[in-house]
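Batch manifest, entry 17 of 40.
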Amino acid sequence: MDVFDDLIRGVRAHGSLFGSSVLTPPWSLRFVDGAPLTLCTVLGGAGWIVPDGGRPVPLRDRDTVVVRGPEPFRFVDDVDTGAEPVDCGQQCAVPGEGGTRHRRGWHDTGEGGVTLIVGAYPVHGEISRMLLETLPDVLRVDGGGTGDGVLDHVADEVSIDRPGQQVVLDRLLDWMLVCTLREWFDRPDTDPPAWWAAQHDPVVGESLRWIHAEPAAPWTVAALAERARVSRSTLAKRFADIMGEPPLAYLIRWRMTLAAEMLVERSSATIADVAHAVGYSDPFGFSAAFKRVRGVNPSDFRRAATG
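Output type: structure tokens
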């Protein structure tokens, strides 16, 4: 178990493929569904991703772009395109506009067009929101990386309707999203979150793996240092240098993130149940820690989050 495993687990495609469209210029598709994350890639051509109020980002053959919502964005053939924007969501179907159509499994056999493949991701829970907070509004990864092999499978699958297609596409898109984020985090010109760099450190990475594997365990700095096979002082300094906070401060913050998710997702769980699940035998001590980290007590947080 590592940090990325935990954060990406709640980001899953589920019937979320908009579709495959073959476009001939000029075109301007405006995605207005408000998805927290949208993955876009093209085959056999190029275009531009233009966020509302943001800088245009080029999308070339086999490049992949991930757009963070919920603000709308456009996919255009040219930044100065003369095409009228067509609003697209899950029900978009406008074959009269440049030969485009958005629905699962649709494919145009015409030649010379740009094939756009789009997947939108719902993001649920406090844990997955931690991942969203580390991402820019738009990130792009060049073609030719580890996601290319997945893209070949996606292109084959969307070319024809067949039984079980949506499940296959969902899993392929999950795979492609993970490959894209890993490549982007590893690029030398990006500023990845501290936990990403820490996972490559033999000392801090080992400590993080234990914290995420057993968040409710009675961890101390000494116990984590023993698992990492270093002294207590070495772990404390190295952890703070890389993560920007002491080990136990990170542990408490992570426990409160888990608790916040449980408070919302498990309506039948009592405050004492949640406290025990994240390592607190005393619900009053847990409530005090939750309010210190989150600024509100657990009961009020649950009422506000569940509306």
